[in-house]
Amino acid sequence: MTKLFLAVSLLTLAGSSFAAPSPTTLLLQGSVSPKVSLTVTSQPVAQTLDLATTQTDLNVASVNEQSNTKSGYKVTITSANLGKLTLAGGAEVFAYTLKYGNTALNLSSAAGQVVTNSTSGVVNQSRSVTVSYTGKPAESMVEGTYSDTITFGIAAN
Q1: In a domain, 152, yes or no
Q2: CA proximity to 96, closest of 111, 76, 82, 80
Q3: Out of 23, 27, 97, 149, which could bridge 80 as a Cys pair, Cβ 3.0 to 4.6 Å?
Q4: Cα 3 to chain centroid, rounded
Q5: Would you say 67 and 36 are in contact if contact means Cβ atoms under 8 Å apart?
Q6: Range of the structural domain that residue 132 is part of
Q7: What pLDDT digit, counting tens, does each position of 47-76 carry?
Q8: Taking the model in full, what pTM does it have?
């Protein structure tokens, strides 16, 4: 009887060690944070504009936009002097127009202009910044340095 009990016990143990395991799963997961950025690369001519010579679409900078958002992004462009070159320490102004890519900008308000890109997914593109103006002879302008500061910002939609 002891032999029979031992044989049944051994068979029970052997049977349980060969049973198929219940299925289990492994979850692999990672996440990517949204990222938007831009880089402005100025051309040397941007700081040495010849105000006596008329310019049409003179390339003064390039802007590289990068985004990985699902909803796209917007670039906000503002002008410290509301779209005019202003004489340092004076009230005299020099009118100009600015294009971002092929879009003419209206910088006459403090809010500036928003350029929206609704492309979802990965974007890495560059746009040119060009300036146009009608030149004026030096004798018709007060001497000094005329300038404006353009600010570019980027945010997800």
Answers
A1: yes
A2: 82
A3: 149
A4: 81
A5: yes
A6: 36-156
A7: 999 999 999 999 999 999 999 999 999 999
A8: 0.81
